[in-house]
Amino acid sequence: MASSAVERAKKKLPERLAEVRGERSQRQFARDLGVFQQNVNRYESGTTPHTDFLITLALEENVSLDWLLLGRGKARRGK
Fold first, then answer.
1. Per the CATH hierarchy, to which homologous superfamily does domain 3-70 belong?
2. How is the chain split into domains, by residue range?
């Protein structure tokens, strides 16, 4: 993947995280995931999330990592 494509994908990640969070506050979202609110804030502000956070998010919120990271497919995984 070209460097510019990587940068475009990274810029969309905070928007997708906020979309998954929905109407919940960052504090409540962090509690639901068992992480610190500061991490959620940093990730929604553009810091690249840690792998553990991404895996937890995918499992707890039933979110497709392909959608979250690349915008491909559906946001929610099928059961």
1. lambda repressor-like DNA-binding domains (1.10.260.40)
2. 3-70
Neighbours of 35 (CB within 10 A): 19
Predicted TM-score (pTM) above 0.70: yes
Contact 39, 33 (CB under 8 A): no
Q: What is the pLDDT along the chain (79 residues), one digit of tens a residue?
A: 568 888 888 899 999 999 999 999 999 999 999 999 999 999 999 999 999 999 999 999 999 999 999 988 777 766 5
Distances (CA, A) of 39 to 57, 60, 77: 13, 16, 24
Half-sphere exposure of 27 (CA within 13 A, CB side): 0
* Contacting residues for 54 by C-beta, under 8 A, at least 6 apart: 65, 68, 69
- Per-residue tokens: 19: 């979309």
